[in-house]
Every structure is written in structure tokens, then in C-alpha cells.
Amino acid sequence: MIPQYLVDFDLAELPVIDTDVIVIGSGIAGLFTAIKASENRKVTMITKKSLMESNTRYAQGGIAAVISDEDSPASHREDTLLAGAGLCSSASVDILVHEGPEGVKELMTLGTAFDLENGELALTKEGAHSHRRILHANGDATGYEIVRALSEQVGGHANIDIWDDHFVIDLITKDNECLGALVQQPDGGRVFLRGTATVLCSGGAGQLYRYTTNPEVATGDGVAMAYRAGALIRDMEFIQFHPTALCYPGAPRFLISEAVRGEGAILRNIRGERFMEKYHSLLELAPRDIVARAIVSEMEQTGATHVYLDITHEEPETIKHRFPTIYETCIGYGLDMTTDWIPVAPAAHYMMGGVQTGHHGETSVRRLFACGEVSSTGVHGANRLASNSLSEAVVFGRRIVERIRQLAPLAETGAGIACRSDRHEAVIQPIVERRLKLQKVMVRQVGVRRTKGGLLKGIEELKRQLPIFGAVLHTREQLEFANMLTCALLLSESALVREESRGGHYREDFPERDDARWRRHILCHREKGMLEEISDDV
Questions:
Q1: Which among 166, 280, 325, 356 has the fewest CB atoms less than 10 Å away?
Q2: Which pLDDT does position 377 carry in this prediction?
Q3: DSSP letters of 375-429?
Q4: Mind telling me which NCBIfam families this protein's record contains (predicted)?
Q5: What pLDDT, on the 0 to 100 scale, is given for residue 59?
Q6: Which domain holds residue 301?
Q7: Is 145 in the same domain as 269?
Q8: Confidence band of 156 (pLDDT split at 50, 70, 90)
Q9: pLDDT tier at 94 (50, 70, 90 boundaries)?
């Protein structure tokens, strides 16, 4: 069994720092929540790298919200529910589509400069959206612009204390109440940061896979520490693989935005044949899971490591204006979008599941909240609709702060809490090797397509790494690996239990969706094990 705490400690022997609100993570969820909370609370924001390093920074396509008079919340709701494949929370989706526009306005008030056309907000359309409702910034650098604007607000705020290069090891709990966090400082020292409320905004877990669009920091820390703290974890089997990541020698798996297909790009196999008509009526704009599996099928049939994305039929100036970041990145590797087909392949992109929350971001542990990709609000169901993630972070960040304002002061001090075990100093295999081994297991056995045999083999291989929980862990890399292993096991075991195919989870041995049996969620709890919950999607 995975232990409650990763390291031994005694709070009586540690320095204690008090704050009102602890925010763990610095993507859009963390930054926005910190800004809102700081209006009347002292906030301590912890980031294991820096304010500007998060998944948000790399978000290209944009943020989805109903802005146009031709659009409606009802239409946005319908698109979201359809993509979510029967596992969305209808109530959560209603909150998103009705409160999203106000959230976008607030981002603008805080300094985010979205692109304009003729003085109006420029809107584009992405896969599985029925209307143009995606706001973008600097063409294809939306996430960067949002993080830039919010970071400037946070950096100069008197009520926000920023802890760069700090690592949250674990959440400190007593009687199912979160008292704060055990934090490792850059010099290796540890402190107990105590707070009235703790908000997980730690992002996703793309680094579980060898090929991912996520940055190095996306190691699933929030889900793992919440699981150890006794929170319910939901829908971990649903991982979104972005269909079109750059696949080129020497280049990172750089995201080629959905918006490129939204603006008319088509997919071709290595024979030059357009192939999406074989797989879905929406062609290149089908839901991401369908496009990703179609690409994998074509790669297998043709013996290739990639397919091509072709937007060469569009005007060169239009491409350069609409996708400046993608264009410049490709040019840097000798690829010209205006004249060349771009080699692409699927890569791990987004975690639909996470820490289960209510409509105000509250988890099953009192005083612990979750926001953004680390959370499972019910908005995304089995497959996230493009560009809903940034909206979700803003909408639920605001709601979390509303709930925090209702909390009574923390009565429990944490006195007497300690973890003493028989952990041993072990010669730990180099973490870089362990990490690569885990990533290969996940790609081969728990990737775009899964089978019972493959999942069982993957779980067996992952469990061989469990002795690390009995070792004394010192470095951030060791602690991150323990979190990755936790998430990998939760994901694999959930995927094994779900004997159907739905959204971001595809079982070759159960290729059909089974609403009669599986229109329900799989929950993971450290002590209670695997549980099920019927979906409230209607």
C-alpha cells in the first residue's frame, strides 16, 4: 500500500509558517486563484520552478467562452457534453458555460490582451465546437499571454508571497482535515506551511508518457499527494492524447494546435492520402480521441512513425499571421508550414481525471481544494472539449475563493503530528533510468489503445518499483518519481477495471461504449480502494 507520507518528519521539530491560503502551482488556475484570494487574504504561492513554467504557458489554441451573439450557452453545453461521452457532470458544465464569459472579461481586466479583428474580439473554431467561440492571443500563444498578464499581477501584490523553487512533499492532515503542507526548500530544509485553506493547482501528469506536450514539471504531484492525504481521485483512466504533436528528429513534441485544423489543415498519411473520411464524419475536426486513434491506425498500416498535417493550400501570410509561434518553431527545424507538410504524431496532452471536487472546488478532505487540470470537476467527462480547460480554471478558481471566504479560522495546530517509519537509506537506481522505464511502460501498455493483457503486464512492471516508498527520499527528482509511480498505478488500474471504450480510454478487447454498465465513474481511495459512482450526465 502507498504510505500516507513520503518522508519521515515531526512537526514539533520543524519551522512553522502561517498563512491564510496556500496555492500550490502557478498555471492559470494557481495564478488566478491567488489573485482572487489575495483581495482579502494572505496568500502563499508555491511553485517548484518559477511562475512562468506550467502547462498553461504552452496552451496555444485559446480559451472557450460564449462571446458571439450567434452562439449560446446551450450550444456550448451541448458540445461539451457530446465530447465528454456521457461522463460529464451536467451541473458542472452549466456552471462553466454560463460563468465562462465573465471569467474571460476578468482576465482582460487583469491585463490579458486577446486578439482583435476590426475592434472586436477575434473568435475561431476548434474541433468538436459548433460555433466560433475560441479567444486567442498573439495568434497561437494564448497561454503564454494569460500567464504573462497574471504573473505581473501576482509578482507585485503585497498580499501574495511567492515561493519559487520549492517542492510540496505532502499535505498534512488530521481527522480528514488539511492543515497545510510539508514543503522542501531549495537548500533541502523542510518547513510546515500552515493555512486556513490549501488549493492544489499543480497541473497534469503528461510526464508519465515518453512523448508529451507537457513541460518537465508535469509529474502528477497534486493527484499523488491528494491520494495519499485521503482525497477521492476520479476518472484517472481518461488521458487525452493530442493528435498532432510535431514528430521530427531533434525536435521536442511541440504542440501543433487544434486551431490549425480548425483553420482548414488536413491530415495525410505518408502516402499522401487524406484519411479522416474513413474514421469520422467531422473529418479532421472530430473529437481528439478519434483523430488520435485514426492517426495511430494509419501509422500502423503504412509502417510509419508519423502522418502529415497539410495547410499548404492556405495563403502564406494568413498562416504566418494566425500561427506565428508554430510557424517560427517549425522554421527553426527546417520545416515551412506554408510549403511543407508537417510530420505529426499523437502525444500525451491532458488528464481529464484528477482530484474529485464539488462545484466550489472542494475535495473530500476538508479545507483542501483543487483547481485546473489536477481537479476532476466533472466538466470534461471522458474527453475534454478543446479550449475548455482555461475557462474551467478561471470559473472554478473564482468559486473556490468564494468558499474559502466562508471558512472559519483553522483551530487545529498540527501539534503532535509526525511520521516515523522504518524507511532505509537505499541505493536507488538513477531516477532518470527509473523514469524512462516507467514512461516506456505507460506508452506501450497504457497508451492510446489498451488491452487486458497489456494493462496487467504494465501494472506488474510498475509494482516492481514500489520498494521506493520504503526508501529515504531526498531529492526533488526522487519525490517526483514517487508521485509519478502513484499516478501511473492509479491510471493503469482504473483502465483495467473499465471494460469498455469511451472518450480518452480505448480498450481493443472492449471496443464498444457500454452505457448500460459503464456510464459511471471509477474512484480511487487510498484506504477504501476502487469505488464506482453513477454519472449525472443527462
A1: 280
A2: 98
A3: EE-SSSTTSPPTTHHHHHHHHHHHHHHHHHTTPPPP----TT-EE----B-----
A4: nadB, PRK07512.1
A5: 63
A6: 244-347
A7: no
A8: confident
A9: very high
Candidates 409, 399, 398, 411; CA nearest to 360 is 399
Residue 530 within a domain: no
Is 227 domain-assigned? yes
Contact present, 478 and 452 (Cβ < 8 Å):
no
Torsion of CA 461, 465, 467, 473, to 10 degrees: -170
Rounded to 10 degrees, the C-alpha dihedral 137/100/29/84 comes to -100
| All residues at 6 or more sequence positions from 436 whose CB lies less than 8 Å from its CB, including other chains | 210
Look-up of cell digits 504510505? 3
The pLDDT of residue 290: 86
Q: Are residues 75 and 183 in the same domain?
A: yes
Q: What is the CATH number of the domain that holds 72?
A: 3.50.50.60
Pairing mode of beta strands 418-419, 190-200: unpaired
Residue 536 has pLDDT above 90, yes or no: no
Among 347, 363, 380, give the residue marking a domain's end.
347
Residues 6+ apart with CB under 8 A from 521: 87, 234, 235, 532, 533, 534, 535
Scan for cell 475536426, then name that residue: 285
Whether residue 287 sits in one domain with residue 234: no
Q: Would you call 137 helix, strand, or coil by DSSP?
A: coil
Residue among 369, 342, 366, 288 at smallest CA distance from 34:
369
Examine the domain organization and report whether 362 and 391 are in the same domain.
yes
Radius of gyration of the chain (CA): 22
Assign residue 114 a region (left: φ > 0; alpha: ψ between -120 and 50; beta: otherwise): beta
Residues 141, 382: Cα–Cα separation, whole Å: 26
DSSP H helix total and E strand total for the chain:
14, 23
Query: Residue ranges of the alpha helices (H) in 163-287?
Result: 221-228, 258-262
Q: Judge if 151 and 122 occupy the same domain.
A: yes
CATH assignment of the domain containing 443 = 1.20.58.100
Q: How confident is the model at residue 247 (pLDDT cuts 50, 70, 90)?
A: very high
Q: Which residues of 414-446 are buried (b: 16+ CB within 10 A; e: fewer)?
A: beebebeeebeeeebeebeebbeebbebbbebb
> Secondary structure of 419-454 in the HEC alphabet?
ECCCCECCCCCCHHHHHHHHHHHHHHHCCCCECHHH
- Does residue 499 share a domain with residue 363? no
pLDDT at 57: 64
User: Domain check: are 169 and 128 in the same one?
Assistant: yes
Whole-prediction pTM value?
0.92
Q: Is 435 marked active-site?
A: no
**Catalytic position from the list 133, 194, 288, 399:** 288
Shared-domain flag, residues 64 and 112: yes
**Mean pLDDT of all residues belonging to the chain:** 93
Instruction: Tally the domains of the chain.
Output: 3
Q: Dihedral sign, CA of 276, 281, 286, 291?
A: negative
Residue 249: CB partners within 8 Å, gap ≥ 6?
A: none
* 3-class secondary-structure state, position 75: helix
**Residue 449: inside a domain:** yes
Mean pLDDT of 309-337: 94
